[in-house]
């Protein structure tokens, strides 16, 4: 049975990420209630060290999501001109706090901050992004603790749309630590045959055209079009690119996939916006209640 987040237009199923995310949030809210009955209020700390518009928009959306499901959110803002030690000390404080179960340091960070040191510094038991090397290692070893939110959201969308992964030929375009690498590992864990492509791949089209599943996570607007896809492919668009225009906002959002052409060829397609983005935020809530339950030795049912 297909889940709530799919509707069919002609032969193509268009995934509705907002609808699936809504379902996930309802499950999270039930876990929050169960934790509440044990006297635990899950808490998420977001740390922003950036002047970037998109970054602050994402962080405020995450705070709003927390409020909706009953997770307490704490926000720390650090001027991007401050020394890196400010951020390190903030992380140390949050690691020590009992009311903070999850910590998210919004990326990207200023150039003078050592990102790897930041990711190592977050207590792996509170690392709801799943970026700490210990959690990365566990994921690769097939024993995940916190699965990074975007790849976890992609897996949930594929499950909701009833896409069978066993034996599937999957091509992931993009090899970032945040999306491409963890997603390739998760697909492999589900017995897909995975090809991970990137900017230096020779003949990218050959890899996308032969794939049953194409995941676009390269960060290049409308980079994948119908000519690069097999008839009937499943297409997941992870890109969220701001493209400047003459509208009042000054930009619009577009994915890494040319949706209009790709939807004519795909059997299932996840658009952007409205696909993976809302799921990324929903999975952060899932990881936060999981962290709260683990840190308080609670065995409430998890979403
Ligand atoms: N430590 C860290 N963890 C992250 O998970 C993280 C990060 N840093 N830095 C930036 C990226 C990007 N990201 C998105 C989250 C939600 C949407 C999202 O909700 N997009 C909506 C539209 C949002 C809008 O209207 O602007 C959609 O696609 O429909 C997009 C992108 C999380 N990231």
Automatic annotation (TrEMBL):
<feature type="domain" description="Tetrahydrofolate dehydrogenase/cyclohydrolase NAD(P)-binding">
    <location>
        <begin position="148"/>
        <end position="293"/>
    </location>
</feature>
<dbReference type="InterPro" id="IPR020631">
    <property type="entry name" value="THF_DH/CycHdrlase_NAD-bd_dom"/>
</dbReference>
<comment type="function">
    <text>Catalyzes the oxidation of 5,10-methylenetetrahydrofolate to 5,10-methenyltetrahydrofolate and then the hydrolysis of 5,10-methenyltetrahydrofolate to 10-formyltetrahydrofolate.</text>
</comment>
<feature type="binding site">
    <location>
        <position position="240"/>
    </location>
    <ligand>
        <name>NADP(+)</name>
    </ligand>
</feature>
<dbReference type="GO" id="GO:0005829">
    <property type="term" value="C:cytosol"/>
</dbReference>
<dbReference type="InterPro" id="IPR046346">
    <property type="entry name" value="Aminoacid_DH-like_N_sf"/>
</dbReference>
<keyword id="KW-0521">NADP</keyword>
<feature type="domain" description="Tetrahydrofolate dehydrogenase/cyclohydrolase catalytic">
    <location>
        <begin position="15"/>
        <end position="129"/>
    </location>
</feature>
<keyword id="KW-0378">Hydrolase</keyword>
<comment type="pathway">
    <text>One-carbon metabolism; tetrahydrofolate interconversion.</text>
</comment>
<keyword id="KW-0658">Purine biosynthesis</keyword>
<dbReference type="Pfam" id="PF02882">
    <property type="entry name" value="THF_DHG_CYH_C"/>
</dbReference>
<keyword id="KW-0368">Histidine biosynthesis</keyword>
<keyword id="KW-0028">Amino-acid biosynthesis</keyword>
<comment type="subunit">
    <text>Homodimer.</text>
</comment>
<dbReference type="GO" id="GO:0004477">
    <property type="term" value="F:methenyltetrahydrofolate cyclohydrolase activity"/>
</dbReference>
<keyword id="KW-0486">Methionine biosynthesis</keyword>
<protein>
    <recommendedName>
        <fullName>Bifunctional protein FolD</fullName>
        <ecNumber>1.5.1.5</ecNumber>
        <ecNumber>3.5.4.9</ecNumber>
    </recommendedName>
</protein>
<dbReference type="GO" id="GO:0006164">
    <property type="term" value="P:purine nucleotide biosynthetic process"/>
</dbReference>
<comment type="similarity">
    <text>Belongs to the tetrahydrofolate dehydrogenase/cyclohydrolase family.</text>
</comment>
<feature type="binding site">
    <location>
        <begin position="174"/>
        <end position="176"/>
    </location>
    <ligand>
        <name>NADP(+)</name>
    </ligand>
</feature>
<keyword id="KW-0560">Oxidoreductase</keyword>
<dbReference type="GO" id="GO:0035999">
    <property type="term" value="P:tetrahydrofolate interconversion"/>
</dbReference>
<keyword id="KW-0511">Multifunctional enzyme</keyword>
<dbReference type="InterPro" id="IPR036291">
    <property type="entry name" value="NAD(P)-bd_dom_sf"/>
</dbReference>
<keyword id="KW-0554">One-carbon metabolism</keyword>
<dbReference type="InterPro" id="IPR020630">
    <property type="entry name" value="THF_DH/CycHdrlase_cat_dom"/>
</dbReference>
<dbReference type="GO" id="GO:0004488">
    <property type="term" value="F:methylenetetrahydrofolate dehydrogenase (NADP+) activity"/>
</dbReference>
<dbReference type="GO" id="GO:0000105">
    <property type="term" value="P:L-histidine biosynthetic process"/>
</dbReference>
<dbReference type="GO" id="GO:0009086">
    <property type="term" value="P:methionine biosynthetic process"/>
</dbReference>
<dbReference type="Pfam" id="PF00763">
    <property type="entry name" value="THF_DHG_CYH"/>
</dbReference>
<dbReference type="InterPro" id="IPR000672">
    <property type="entry name" value="THF_DH/CycHdrlase"/>
</dbReference>
């Amino acid at each position: 049975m297909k889940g709530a987040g799919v509707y069919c237009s002609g032969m193509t199923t268009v995934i509705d990420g907002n609808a699936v995310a809504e379902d996930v949030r309802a499950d999270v809210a039930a876990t929050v209630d169960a934790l509440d009955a044990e006297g635990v209020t899950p808490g998420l700390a977001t740390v922003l060290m950036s002047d970037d518009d998109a970054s602050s928009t994402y962080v405020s959306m995450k705070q709003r999501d927390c409020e909706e499901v009953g997770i307490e959110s704490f926000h720390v803002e650090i001027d991007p001109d401050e020394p890196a030690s400010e951020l390190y000390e903030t992380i140390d404080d949050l690691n020590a706090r009992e009311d903070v179960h999850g910590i998210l340091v919004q990326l990207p960070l200023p150039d003078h901050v050592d990102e790897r040191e930041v990711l190592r510094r977050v207590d792996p038991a509170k690392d709801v992004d799943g970026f700490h090397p210990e959690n990365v290692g566990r994921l690769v070893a097939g024993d995940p603790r916190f699965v990074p939110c975007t790849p976890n959201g992609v897996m949930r969308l594929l499950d909701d749309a009833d896409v069978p992964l066993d034996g599937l030929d999957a091509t992931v375009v993009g090899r970032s630590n945040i999306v491409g690498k963890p997603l390739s590992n998760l697909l492999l864990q589900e017995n897909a045959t995975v090809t991970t492509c990137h900017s230096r791949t020779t003949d990218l089209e050959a890899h996308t055209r032969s794939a049953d599943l194409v995941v676009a996570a390269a960060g290049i607007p409308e980079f994948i079009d119908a000519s690069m896809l097999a008839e009937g492919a499943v297409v997941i668009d992870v890109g969220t690119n701001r493209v400047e225009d003459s509208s009042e906002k000054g930009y619009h959002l577009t994915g890494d996939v040319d949706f209009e052409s790709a939807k004519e060829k795909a059997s299932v397609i996840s658009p952007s916006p409205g696909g993976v983005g809302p799921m990324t935020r929903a999975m952060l809530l899932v990881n936060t209640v999981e962290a709260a339950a683990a840190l308080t030795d609670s065995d409430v049912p998890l979403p």
